[in-house]
């Protein structure tokens, strides 16, 4: 668990306020658990939202690109503040595909005609939280924390916010350019036969390339592989 700044704490409070109108109509039928909630999960989601343990958040899954399965809009957005709060309290959750599937499937803007994604007034609080969490993680020196930066960058790209916002969050910590670039390269590079990082070719090629190009500039300026990255 990592300590969080006053700004990050305020951003989490804003998430709870923004998504407060959503409720679980029937916790026993919540769709974001595989085969429905078991007894422990049901007990957790039936109590106060902020008391849902991280161990239960870890078992939530959000794989469908609409609201018809793996959680309805009301269900997903009800638990969203707690899920995001747990990302700040337990950064290891950033490496869980089931948790991060939120950004690949449920929260992407304009994803499907079914309307999955965030409403306009919901985007800013989520973006603000992710930027602050990204900035917070960039200040940490542990290898595992550095690797987790890539997941946050990808989440911002998945949400299709302005790429410059995530870049600015990282750039506020110039002393961390080495570890940050290391994290970005680890997640987004593709090596050729000469072990040279290349641009990323994927669904979000343009957005991710902004970050890999920036990371490569830092990488080259620091001496590349010879610098011990």
Q: Can you put this structure into words, describing what you see?
A:
This protein is mainly α and 229 residues long. The protein has one domain. The chain has helices spanning 6-18, 39-46, 54-57, 73-89, 97-106, 120-138, 143-158, 163-171, 177-188, 205-221, and strands at 190-191, 197-198. It is globular. 40% of the residues are buried. Residues 110-115, 174-181, 187-208 and 224-229 have low confidence and may be disordered.
Short description:
With 229 residues, the protein is an all-alpha fold. It has helices at 6-18, 39-46, 54-57, 73-89, 97-106, 120-138, 143-158, 163-171, 177-188, 205-221; strands spanning 190-191, 197-198.
Question: What's the arrangement of strands in the largest beta sheet?
Answer: 1-2
Structural class designation: mainly alpha
- Report the radius of gyration as a whole number of Å: 18 Å
Write down the overall geometry. globular
Helicity range of the residues?
40-55%
Largest sheet: 2 strands, antiparallel
**Secondary-structure element series:** HHHHHHHHHEEH
Low-confidence stretches: 110-115, 174-181, 187-208, 224-229
Question: What descriptors fit this protein?
Answer:
single chain; 229 residues; mainly alpha; two-stranded antiparallel sheet; 10 helices; 55% helix; globular; disordered C terminus
Q: Can you lay out the helices and strands and say which pair or pack?
A:
Blueprint: H1 6-18, H2 39-46, H3 54-57, H4 73-89, H5 97-106, H6 120-138, H7 143-158, H8 163-171, H9 177-188, E1 190-191, E2 197-198, H10 205-221
Antiparallel strand pairs: 1-2
Helix pairs in contact: 1-4, 1-6, 6-7, 6-8, 7-9, 9-10
